[in-house]
Structures are given as structure tokens and as C-alpha cells.
Amino acid sequence: MRTDLCERLGTEFPLFAFSHCRDVVAAVTNAGGFGVLGAVAYSPERLDAELSWIDEQVGGRPYGVDVLVPGRLDASALDRRAHLLDHVPDRHRDFVTHLMSKYGVRAPARPLTPVADEFGRRMTATGASGLIDVALKHPIGLIASALGPPPPEMVSAARQAGVTVAALAGTVEHARRQVTAGVDLIVAQGTEAGGHTGEISTMVLVPQVVDAVAPVPVLAAGGIASGRQMAAAMALGAQGVWCGSVWLTTEEAETAPAVKRKLLAASSLDTVRSTSRTGKPARQLKSAWTEEWDSGQESPGALGMPLQMLVAEGAMARIGAAAERGEPGALELVNYYVGQVVGQLDQVKPARQVVYDIISEYADAVERLARLSE
Amino acid sequence: MRTDLCERLGTEFPLFAFSHCRDVVAAVTNAGGFGVLGAVAYSPERLDAELSWIDEQVGGRPYGVDVLVPGRLDASALDRRAHLLDHVPDRHRDFVTHLMSKYGVRAPARPLTPVADEFGRRMTATGASGLIDVALKHPIGLIASALGPPPPEMVSAARQAGVTVAALAGTVEHARRQVTAGVDLIVAQGTEAGGHTGEISTMVLVPQVVDAVAPVPVLAAGGIASGRQMAAAMALGAQGVWCGSVWLTTEEAETAPAVKRKLLAASSLDTVRSTSRTGKPARQLKSAWTEEWDSGQESPGALGMPLQMLVAEGAMARIGAAAERGEPGALELVNYYVGQVVGQLDQVKPARQVVYDIISEYADAVERLARLSE
Question: Does B241 contact A at CB distance below 8 Å?
């Protein structure tokens, strides 16, 4: 199967795998798809090491990197740490302490400082453009911006390196803005997707974005974890698909075992778009954490982004660790970003097998459609 | 194009058109699709007249009827009118009065009684099974239940008449329950659909329902108003599609002019799943009505079904009439049930033309998919 985009990026099959796990990225690329490493959690040094590992594994086959960069790179953000912390109201700190106590998770003495440090680092020129510089020194084929239009520095650096720039969009307006910012490839992401997501479904969004940004190519994201769903996305006019959730239950995935078990057991009704982790609506597994924040009697309501991230991420790291120790309260609270396709994920498979299964079911779906029209 | 379902129902193209307008039903059937008349608003006598008119128009081509029946036909419901009215709290009556005054719509002196009468009629054996009896006396090919599993009386009467029974489902569990109740054809409806709808998107829901109820055939609903979207639905494993919103802006549609103008101007972000009209989440155009009920400071919150229907429908009838007179407050309040595809609806076309456009774009999409795999 060859789309123009496959030719351009040198991939056999236009199946893009977003993952924070280098093993998934390499496995998908080696199986004929296109792995994309989510780099947000890494320091530049660590990213360099991860990409060198991938380079060794994939032997010149194409892969990419996804970065979370602010629209403008701001060197002063690190200095804003104390300022940010000052803006977290006491009742939000107290609510986290209350939740940790109610569910029996040991609360840290100073929960917010390391998270604020991490956050500040990511938002600086050395954090964000440092990651971009490192990524572009490797033989990547694609660099993606997960949050808003990429800054001009990123677009021009990628152009000079001959690297395709992709960006996510949840509305037609977002997509148009991305193209104006110089993006080469739009990922139109429906509301059923995991993580930060809008309100419009993939079925409705994709054809509108395809028509709005033509001839810029569009990948479909949200609700795609099988060959039938990939065929549906291609029928809508996409040139390929961008999948995230389906890799979380692969053998290679970095997903914590307790979370993986929750994902395997969940139905498609068990996700929620909640502001409780980042301050913006992000689809994730429903858990005591989302229930307490979203509709608990004592909830102060989520703060905006980035303050809610400061409040949530330190607590979630501790909750995750306690869940891995099997603590029942932590197991109730723990969750992860995942799309509605979680209801389809009921066994652990190697990432390579997931690719082959999607390719095979895709071929069957296209053949069935062709037969119906004979 | 022929699916097994086309053979069974004698239709050329598995495009099902749900509409409250007999003209749309006849036009779609005559264009090679399958019109389905929503009968909930009709008395048995009126339904008989509408179906006789359709019979004359379609010359033996296949069409169907959609009824809203309670799971059990209850002859005592008419007597419950007074009882129901007693359960509407004063603050809900007062809030409607307040809204009508705030937006300058003349409030009726006794707003609830006629609505309660109408509601009681629909819920009785003479109301619901009266409609079914009338429908089955006409040469219909399909009878659909829009709300929960159809009662056994409906299933057995339809079977005796050789009429296929369809029913809507928003989850895999609903679909299984429908099949257990004797339903022959499942309409798997995604969250992007207009009217009462669940949380799971069409892209995610349809393959799950197809696998769960096989070999029972499945229609896809929600997010489908073009040939590409129909091709996507068929790729997901559906045997056909069930469309509602796309007919609301056709020439023939009964849609009130002021509402039609709002639909044509709306984007896919302008709908909301709101309990403010029926007490259950139903997707509709965002308007001052939904905003005031869902997040207005003075809102008492929607009641459950059917009480919220009693509260809302009398008011909405008056609001609609005032909107047609061009009253600005009423134009802010007025809305209608519609899916996210409303963002694609930007011109008024004959229903026949909509069918032809969908068929033509469908063929192009399938051909494009086949070419990509060559």
C-alpha cells in the first residue's frame, strides 16, 4: 500500500505509532509502520541516548519524534517556578492531601517543588529547543508538535534538516492555524482519542480537516486500533493514521503493570475527558482520581493549565508507585491517558504483531468494500 | 451496490433516512435509499394518512416506520398525568417562567397540561401499540424502536407481518439486549449523533457491536452525512448507514425556517449533549436554552425523563412560534436535535440530491481505497 505520504516518508504502511517507549517505536518502524517517540518526559541528554538506541535498531528505516513545545520559547519560564507555586491555592493542596489520606497513600511533605522544577525546565529554551536540536541531529523523518502551532524556530530548523513537521488539531480552525505556521502534515484528532482532545468525533472531524487544508496531507487519530478502523479513516480521506492507545498494552510498552491490568479490563465506557490531571480536558481512564476531582463533594474543581499539572503530577507519581506495591486505595486512584478504543484492548501482544494484525484486517476491509460495489 | 441487507429489504442502496417528514421519506426511497418515518408525533389516524400518502408516492418501493415505545405498554399511563404534573417542582416551573420573561417570550398561563396529555397518550396501549398496528397495516419493510428494547407485542406483530424489526443501541450491552428481545437489525449509534445518544463514538462503537451481535446485521449511525463517511461506516463492518441530521436542511424537510437557518450556520462545535429537553442526554444545537439549563446560575438543573419533557416541550413549542415571528430572544433560545455533522450542512438541497451525492462520493471513496492497495 502506497500513499503519497508513504513515498515522502519512506514508510511501507501509513500507520504512525505514538509511544513514550523506544521499544515500541523501533518495533513499529521495523514492522513497516512509522514509530514516533514522545519526547516530553526526557532531558536532551536522555533523548539523545534513546534516539541513538533507536537508530541502531531500525537500520535507516523511518521514525520520528513528538515534542510538547510552547508556542513561544520562553527563557524566563524557569524563573517563574516560585511564581507558579504561589498561584496554587491552599484548598487545592489540601484536597490532594485529603485524597491521599482518604485512599491511604502516603503524602509527600513538599509535593509541588520537583514538579514545578521539571515543568519550568520543559518550558525554557534549553528544555524545548534543546530537545528539538537533539532530535534533528538524528536521522528522523518527522517531528511533531502535540500542543498548538509549532514555534517558527522549530519549523525553520526542521525545514533545514529536511524533516517533515506534523501537528495535532481538534478543530478545522486549529488545522488552518497549524498550516499557516508552516506545518506539513496535520494529525486530525477526534474526541475519542486519549490525552488532550476536543469535542468533535473522528468521523466528523477528518473529512472537514481534509477539505480545509488540502493539499496538505492529513492523518486521522482517535478511535483507531484495528484494520477496520484504519480503513474507515482512509475512507474519510486521511493519508494515514496516528495511533497511541493501542501500544499501551503491547509487550514492549512502558505502561506500569497495575495500569496495564486496568487498561485490559476497561470497556469503552470507562474513559472520561477530565481536566483533573492537566487543567485541560484530556481523555483518560475513569478512576477515583477523576471522580473525586470532577464530581466529588469536597472537590475545589481543577485549576487551569499549567497549575493543575503541578497539583496532579507529583501526587500521581506517588499514587503510581503505591499502586505497583498493590495498595488498594492507590489502585482505585491510579489511571492513565487512553482513548475509547481501550474497550478493544484485551490481550498483550508484541507491537510488531499489532502492526501485522492491523495491516491484515485493513486489507480484508478494503477487499470487502470493493466486493460490495461489484 | 448490494449487501445482504439490501437483498432482504429490497433496497438498492443501504442508506436509511430517519425523518419526521413524509416528503423526505418518499424522496429517499424513490432515489434508491430507504426512508424511515419517525411516528412519535402522530396520532394513529394521522399516521395512517401519512403512510397512505407515502404508499402512493413510492409505488411499492421499501420504507419503514420508527416508533418510540416504552419497554412495556402500560394502559394506566394516561391516568398518571396528574400524578406526573405533581412531580414537577415549583422551582422548575418558575425557572421556565423566568427564562420566558428574560428572553421576552410570552409565557402561557398553564404550560404543562396539554404536554402532559400528549405525553400520557403516547405512553398508553392505544398510543404506542395503536401506532404499531397502523404501521403494520401498510406495506412497510421495517419497524424501528428508538428507545430501549421493543416490547414482545411489537416483535411478534412485526414477525407475523414479515416486517424487519430494528432498534438503536449506544453500547455493546444495549445491542445484546436488543438482540435478546428479538430485534433483527441493530442501529449502532455513536455519541456524535443527534438526539438521545451515548458517549462512545461511531468509530469505536460500530466494530464492537458488529462483533458482539454477528450474524445480526448492523447499521452505523452518528457522524454520517456524506459518501466518505458512509464508506468509513461500511469499512467498520456495518451493512448500511442510518442518517438523521442530513435531512433537516433538505428542501422537503419540515424544519422550521428559523431553525434551518441556525443549522446551516452552525459548526460542528455548536452542538451539545444536554439533558435540558428530555431529561436524558440528547445532542442538540447549543442555544440560550441549553446554556441556561446546563450552566446558568439560576438553573435548578434538569429533571429526569419524562418530567423534564413536560417542563421543556410546552415552552419550546412557544419559543419556536416566537422565533418564526422573528423575536430576538426566542431566536436565541430556539434549537433542535442535531448531530455534529451539522458543521457540514451549509446548503439546502432536495433530499433526492443528497442521496445521489452520497452514492457518488461513496463510490469515489471505495475506488480511492482500492487504488491505494494496488
Answer: no
